[in-house]
Specification:
Helix content: over 70%
Structural class: mainly alpha
Distance between the termini: 64 Å
Keywords: Membrane, Transmembrane, Transmembrane helix
Largest sheet: none
Order of helices and strands: HH
Radius of gyration: 22 Å
Length: 48
């Protein structure tokens, strides 16, 4: 094969792997469940 075809195939494979990895990361983070918000007392007691 010519070099440009190999570059296109490699780029496509990398793009697909990144896309699948992104979707898996989103599923993993979503699987953890709901996160609790910070207590309001801590937020209002901060002194700047």
């Amino acid at each position: 094969m010519e070099r440009p075809k190999w570059v296109a195939i490699l780029t496509g494979v990398v793009a697909v792997l990144l896309g699948v990895g992104y979707l898996l990361l989103g599923q993993l983070l979503d699987f953890r469940g709901n996160l609790l918000p910070a207590p309001m007392e801590i937020i209002f007691n901060l002194k700047f």
